[in-house]
């Protein structure tokens, strides 16, 4: 993909269109701490250089993401996986919210690894809806099974009662 405007702007535009949080991270080995400080000063945002071990956040924070929790996840990924691989994980909890998380490698035109784009999609509402539907389904199943169980014992009792009455009639008929 060829980008005709700064990648940070592209990431923010795609984020807004897809109602997801997208963050651009650069590999710390590829950039100087002074360049990052100048970039943060131009954007007027807090310097996040020390939050992550291998990566530095280059795009502004969208929403209230817990950076220390995010740093734990990203640092684990960066130490366990090769940087040129994509990483996806369902239902990652950050505080009281649940997200789907994906990390995609960013390469330059020559294919050299530069960093990653992090995608966070808030699925808290969807997860709660799913949990409610599971609860309703479980309760419905319980009610149906109870009805079947009670009906079985009721009809079994009627059959047993009819057999008993038939036995009494046979004995009376013999007598």
Quick take:
The protein contains four helices and five strands, in the order H-E-H-E-H-E-E-E-H.
Order of neighbouring strands in the sheet with most strands: 2-1-5-4-3
Can you give the mean pLDDT?
A: 77
General shape: rod-shaped
Protein structure class: alpha+beta
Determine the fraction of residues in helical runs and give it as a percent range.
40-55%
Our count of helices gives: 4
Q: Which sequence of SSEs, written as H and E, runs from N to C? A: HEHEHEEEH
Low-confidence stretches: none
Radius of gyration, in Å, reads: 31 Å
What are the key terms here?
4 helices; membrane; alpha+beta; transmembrane; 22% strand; rod-shaped; 50% helix; five-stranded antiparallel sheet; 175 residues
Helix and strand layout, with pairings?
Blueprint lengths: L6 H12 L2 E7 L5 H11 L11 E3 L9 H14 L6 E8 L2 E11 L5 E10 L1 H51 L1
Antiparallel strand pairs: 1-2, 1-5, 3-4, 4-5
Explain what you see:
The chain crosses the membrane at residues 134-156. Keywords: Membrane, Transmembrane, Transmembrane helix. The protein has helices spanning 7-18, 33-43, 67-80, 124-174; strands spanning 21-27, 55-57, 87-94, 97-107, 113-122. With 175 residues, the protein is of the alpha+beta class. A five-stranded antiparallel sheet has the order 2-1-5-4-3, sandwiched between helices. Strand 3 and strand 4 form a beta hairpin. The protein is rod-shaped and about 110 Å long.
């Amino acid at each position: 993909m060829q980008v005709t405007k700064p990648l940070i702007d592209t990431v923010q535009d795609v984020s807004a269109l897809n109602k997801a949080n997208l963050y651009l991270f650069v590999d710390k080995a590829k950039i100087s701490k002074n360049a990052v400080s100048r970039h943060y000063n131009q954007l007027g945002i807090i310097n996040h250089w020390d939050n992550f071990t291998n990566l530095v956040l280059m795009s502004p924070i969208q929403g209230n993401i817990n950076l220390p929790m995010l740093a734990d996840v990203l640092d684990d990924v960066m130490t366990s996986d090769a940087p040129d691989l994509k990483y996806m994980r369902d239902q990652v909890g950050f505080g009281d919210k649940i997200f789907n998380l994906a990390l995609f490698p960013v390469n330059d035109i020559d294919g050299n690894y530069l960093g990653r784009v992090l995608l966070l999609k808030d699925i808290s509402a969807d997860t709660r809806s799913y949990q409610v539907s599971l609860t309703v389904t479980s309760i419905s199943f319980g009610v149906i099974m109870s009805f079947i169980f009670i009906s079985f014992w009721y009809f079994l009792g009627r059959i047993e009662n009819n057999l008993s009455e038939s036995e009494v009639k046979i004995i009376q008929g013999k007598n």
